[in-house]
Design a protein that fits this description.
The complex is a heterotrimer of chains A (290), B (433) and C (282). Chain A contains 15 helices and no strands. Chain A is an all-alpha fold and 290 residues long. The two termini of chain A are 16 Å apart. Chain B has 433 residues and is α/β, with parallel strands linked by helices. Chain B has 20 helices and 15 strands. Chain B has helices at residues 2-21, 47-64, 75-88, 99-104, 113-123, 128-134, 156-161, 170-180, 198-210, 228-242, 257-264, 275-283, 285-289, 321-331, 334-344, 357-360, 368-376, 388-395, 398-409, 413-430, and strands at 36-43, 67-74, 94-98, 135-136, 139-140, 143-149, 151-155, 188-190, 267-272, 291-294, 298-299, 302-303, 305-313, 349-350, 377-378. In chain B, strands 1, 2, 3, 6, 13, 14 and 15 form a seven-stranded mixed beta sheet that branches. In chain B, strands 8-9-7-10 form a four-stranded mixed beta sheet. In chain B, a hairpin with a 2-residue loop joins strand 4 (135-136) and strand 5. The radius of gyration of chain B is 24 Å and the shape is globular. Chain B starts with a helix and ends with a helix. Chain C has helices at 2-32, 36-40, 54-62, 65-96, 100-113, 117-130, 137-143, 145-162, 165-173, 178-189, 191-206, 210-215, 224-230, 239-259, 261-267. Chain C is built from 15 helices and no strands. Chain C has a single domain, classed as MetI-like (MetI-like fold, Orthogonal Bundle). The longest helix of chain C has 32 residues, at 65-96. In chain C, helix 4 runs parallel beside helix 7 (137-143) and helix 5 (100-113) packs across helix 8. Chain C is mostly helical and 282 residues long. The chains are: A mainly alpha (290), B alpha/beta (433), C mainly alpha (282). Chains A and C meet through helix 1, helix 3, helix 4, helix 5 and helix 6 of A and helix 1, helix 4, helix 5, helix 6 and helix 8 of C.
């Protein structure tokens, strides 16, 4: 590798590196610093070492919140992936697929999350929301159900907008991936007598593996760090049942006790998840060309 | 070709949208720091009051030659914005503080004792509740602005149908709401928000106090939540919920849900500030005529209701302190203050005895209970003083969660109360000096 | 025979999925034209009996909707531009040069992506106040590329990877240095990808909530997602207006998607292994 090439490579990345150091690395260092203090609003802050982390780990909240985060992200992504896969398969059959159709399909994913949260909040209203109205008409329920008021239902209810949002994302990604599947291989398999299901599982699916893994990891990351959906739908309630790590950390720091140190400590528990998923994306995604 | 034309048209449409949106108010940058004051203001649902506040500030701006920027902040964002302001020490020059936050941040706020002397001369002595929420020792850490009261709101027509009178005690209230419930007609007797919003937290405090229960003892340190009185109070509500008198979904209601359900006719009674009446007057006058208010019922231990007050305050070493104090003085001038209260149309109470609010509200008798509440109002932490721990207990919705745990997670009343009490003790331990 | 019978089923399922995607938007529209009385009632008819535009009038006259829209447009465009400019050379380097440096850089970029806004909003707030940038559009434009650059660089690395090396060799034989090579041969070939990246970044900025919430306080500085959410506050029951604003806020998104649909359709191929340049754009 010539020195010139190395120099070029280095110089080309400098702008991005400088930016990320300033705007990401430095604040992160500050965040870690906060987590090591008992900083709260309106009071002096002192260094308390790992005191916050001890408090976090000994409280009952961390397990439920962490569990919520993992469960929320997993369930959202798995269901959305399946729906997206079905949609992609169906869409791939359309000839002259109409890119316009794709633009419309991807709309739920492209609109701001707070808009999604608001419209679903409105639809989930127990007295007068359209979902209850519809279910009552269809005789699925006999009186208005509170979707966001009881913790078990709320945990499921907050999944729905996220699934609504993520399915199009998977659909579009998987669609373009499907299109790249080697037609020659598919034709050969058909000639060999393989039915559509076998063709799918033995040829198409393995070829789409990378896309599936990468889009799943991204969607998982987005779901685990979701904020406006949860915050606007339930504020983390009822009784902290739907809190994720991010929303709980924010609530600790900006509401409640205004405990920035403790909030920072909770937020840091997101780091393993975030790093894990980011690593996955990097490993499996295509960075280099042979 | 057609596709390209369509594309181009859409592109032009997008550009046009940009241009149109630039027609919005042009943001003036805070260029000249010395001659600009930034005010963090609570955006109240009474639009008229918000406009009036802006108008008063603008008037002062003109007369003093200082620019005033009033930022409207919705209530649910207010606490965090104030946290940011107090923590950073800058970002605004003065702000409207929910009363317990003045106590919470008292160390960092200015001393308004002398200013209060002038204000009480103008407007009369302040109500006891105002002092409770703004005074630490002898020092005033905020200038009480207004408060909104929690009162009970009834559908008068439905009451008359059942020949019911406005209840005086909590037990009477239970009977009334049971009689008013008619699921066939889709009417629930009592529609209290039991969710994350302020409504529930306020209601629970009043419920507990009336039954002789409270979170803190008079010393403000001892936690007395786990008592037989608390259990009685909780069971009062629990039996109504379990018997279907309260809509199941109330656990998930936000602040506006009970308003809406009352206005839509699905609940007959609720506890709220006069905002429902305000909304009805502006949209459905027939319903407004059928609204009746009363103060909170009285329980074994007396009659109490929770007060949420708001004050003007600023940081101790604020650079523009002099100008900010001047603005506060202007707002609290008798004519200006009266303008504000009048514009509220009953949605907020004045904090000074010298202000004849009923006259300002066109002698609308329906709003009398709101003023009567002023005498029975108590702040968070009562019977102890307003403390950081008490404020946090309120913000963390300990009482609301306690109830939710019984309904949702099938805890027994005893267990839920005990759990809530230990949560409170943990909070108190955190705040020990 | 069997295949033909299955087609209506496919169409039905597809229609169902499309309905699932589109119904909330339709409900936004219906709600926004219903008068308040209908909105309060428990009977929530599917079609408005007396449509009214009062909510939209309220939105334009009594809220800062237009200001929020303008702010979002500015911030999203500037942030996306900034991100793409910073990420473009980086993405090129990652795809073309396989030095340890670029590999490490690629890794750290991705790891940096993991530090989502919700993680950094607290220290970012403190920094914004310290530098006097709090409550301005500039701070948002400055901070947004932090979650855009990793995605942009990664996407563009993929697009540059598809540009046949032969084209660049030709340019280099003609005496172009690195910069010229990029400017005149790599970028034109990866045009679609660049547009797709820009649109992607724009959309991500458009929908961003946490930084916008934490780093601004006045209504005039709010972006659309945050401003919208403030319409639902306290005892105010403004669902007609909220849904109207929600619908309005999806219009620019839809326009953008439709305008860029050709390039997007080509572009959103994450992780896809493109074969031997058969899909190269000229």
């Amino acid at each position: 590798m010539s020195i010139r090439v190395r120099r070029n490579a280095f110089l080309l990345t400098v702008p991005a590196v400088v930016y990320m150091l300033l705007i990401v690395a430095y604040p992160f260092v500050l965040l870690v610093a906060y987590s090591l203090t008992n900083r709260r609003v309106g009071a002096p802050s002192e260094f308390i070492g790992l005191g916050n982390f001890a408090e976090v780990l000994s409280s009952s909240m961390i397990w439920s919140v962490f569990g919520n985060t993992i469960r929320y992200a997993t369930m959202s992504c798995v269901v959305s992936l399946l729906i997206g896969l079905v949609a992609a398969l169906l869409l791939s059959r359309l000839k002259g697929t109409g890119n316009t159709l794709q633009s419309i399909i991807v709309l739920p994913w492209a609109i701001p999350a707070s808009v999604t949260a608001l419209v679903w909040l409105w639809m989930f209203y127990d007295l007068g929301g359209v979902i209850n109205w519809l279910f009552e008409r269809l005789q699925l329920i006999d009186k208005p159900v509170s979707w966001l008021g009881l913790s078990s239902r709320a945990r499921l209810a907050v999944l729905v907008p996220n699934i609504w949002k993520l399915s199009p994302f998977f659909a579009i990604c998987l669609l373009s991936s499907l299109r790249e599947v080697d037609n020659a291989a598919l034709r050969a398999a058909t000639l060999d007598g393989a039915g559509p299901i076998r063709r799918f599982f033995h040829i198409s699916l393995p070829a789409m593996r990378r896309t599936i893994v990468v889009s799943f990891a991204l969607a998982f990351l987005w779901s685990a760090t979701e904020f406006p959906l949860i915050y606007i739908l339930t504020r983390g309630g009822p009784a902290d049942a739907t809190h994720l790590l991010g929303t709980y950390s924010y609530e600790l720091a900006m509401r409640g006790g205004f405990e920035i140190g403790l909030g920072a400590a909770y937020a840091l528990f997101l780091v393993p998840i975030a790093l894990g998923m980011a690593l996955l994306v990097w490993k499996v995604g295509q960075w280099h060309r042979g | 070709m057609i596709a390209t034309c369509v594309s181009r048209t859409l592109l032009i449409g997008l550009v046009l949208m940009c241009v149109i949106s630039c027609g919005g108010d042009d943001q003036s940058h805070a260029g000249d720091q010395e001659r600009t004051l930034t005010v963090l203001y609570l955006e109240i649902w009474a639009d008229s009051l918000n406009h009036e506040f802006h108008a008063v500030c603008d008037q002062w701006a003109k007369s003093s030659g200082t620019k005033v920027i009033v930022e409207d902040i919705p209530l649910k964002d207010l606490s965090s914005k104030l946290a940011a302001y107090v923590d950073a020490g800058e970002g605004a020059d003065l702000a409207v503080f929910p009363a317990h936050l003045t106590i919470l941040y008292s160390r960092k706020l200015a001393d308004f004792s002398s200013l209060m002397g002038q204000v009480t001369e103008e407007l009369g002595p302040s109500y006891e509740i105002a002092a409770m929420m703004n005074r630490v020792g002898d020092k005033w850490v905020g200038v009480p602005l207004f408060a909104w009261s929690h009162i009970w709101v009834y559908r008068d027509d439905l009451m008359r149908l059942e020949a019911l009178r406005v209840p005086d005690t909590w037990d009477e209230a239970a009977t009334v709401v049971r009689k008013l419930t008619d699921h066939k007609k889709g009417v629930w007797g009592l529609g209290i928000g039991l969710g994350e919003d302020d409504d529930a937290a306020m209601f629970f405090q009043s419920l507990l106090w009336a039954h002789g229960a409270s979170v803190f003892a008079e010393d403000g340190q001892t936690v007395v939540l786990d008592s037989r009185e608390t259990r009685d109070a909780v069971n009062w509500l629990l039996s109504l919920y379990r018997d279907g008198i309260i809509p199941e979904g109330a656990l998930g209601w936000d602040g506006a849900s009970n308003n809406r359900n009352f206005l839509g006719g699905t609940i007959a009674v609720t506890a709220n500030s006069p905002t429902i009446y305000y909304a009805a007057k502006h949209s459905d006058t027939a319903l407004a005529a059928n609204i009746r208010h009363s103060v909170y019922p009285s329980g074994p231990a007396g009659r109490y209701s929770y007060a949420t007050g708001f004050s003007l305050s600023l940081l101790k070493d604020s650079p523009n302190a002099d100008r900010s104090l001047d603005l506060i003085r202007y707002i609290m001038r008798r004519d200006n203050y009266q303008r504000l209260i009048a514009a509220g149309e009953g949605s907020v109470n004045p904090m000074y005895k010298g202000v004849d609010a009923l006259a300002l509200w066109q002698h609308d008798e329906k709003l009398l209970p709101a003023l009567q509440s002023l005498e029975i109002e108590r702040p968070v932490g009562w019977p102890g003083p307003v403390t950081a721990a008490a404020a946090e207990v309120f913000e963390q919705r300990i009482l609301t969660d306690m109830f939710a745990r019984i309904i949702d997670d099938n805890l027994s009343t005893d267990d839920a109360v005990t759990e809530a009490a230990s949560k409170v003790r943990a909070i108190v331990a955190k705040h020990r000096p | 025979m069997a295949q033909r019978m299955r087609r209506p089923a496919y169409a039905a399922v597809l229609a169902l999925l499309l309905a699932f995607a589109v119904i909330p938007f339709w409900w936004m529209g219906v709600t926004s034209v219903k008068p308040d009385k209908e909105l309060y009632s428990i009977e929530n008819p599917l079609f408005p009996a007396n449509p009214t535009f009062e909510h939209y009038i309220y939105l334009f006259e009594s809220t800062d909707l237009l200001i929020w829209l303008r702010n979002s447009l500015i911030v999203s465009a500037v942030a996306a531009l900034l991100a793409v400019s910073l990420a473009l050379p980086a993405g090129y380097a990652i795809s073309r040069y396989r030095t340890t440096h670029t590999k490490l850089f690629g890794l750290s970029l991705m790891l940096g992506y993991g530090f989502m806004p919700i993680l950094l909003v607290l220290p970012m707030f403190a920094l914004a106040v310290k530098t006097g940038l709090y409550n301005s559009l500039s701070v948002l434009c400055l901070v947004y590329p932090s979650f855009l650059i990793p995605v942009a660089a990664w996407l563009m690395a993929g697009y540059f990877a598809e540009v046949p090396v032969s084209v660049e060799h030709a340019a280099q034989l003609d005496g172009c240095g690195v910069v010229r090579t990029i400017l005149y041969s790599a970028i034109p070939c990866a045009r679609n990808g660049l547009v797709a990246t820009f649109v992607f970044c724009f959309l991500l900025s458009w929908g961003e909530y946490v930084y916008a919430l934490g780093l601004t306080s006045s209504s005039r500085m709010r972006t659309l997602p945050v401003g919208l959410a403030t319409l639902e506050s306290g005892d105010v029951y403004a669902w007609g207006s909220i849904m109207g604003a929600a619908l309005l806020s999806t219009v620019p998104v839809l326009l953008l998607l439709i305008i860029a649909r050709r390039r997007l359709a080509h572009g959103l191929s994450i992780g896809v292994i493109k074969r031997d340049g058969s899909n190269r754009q000229t």
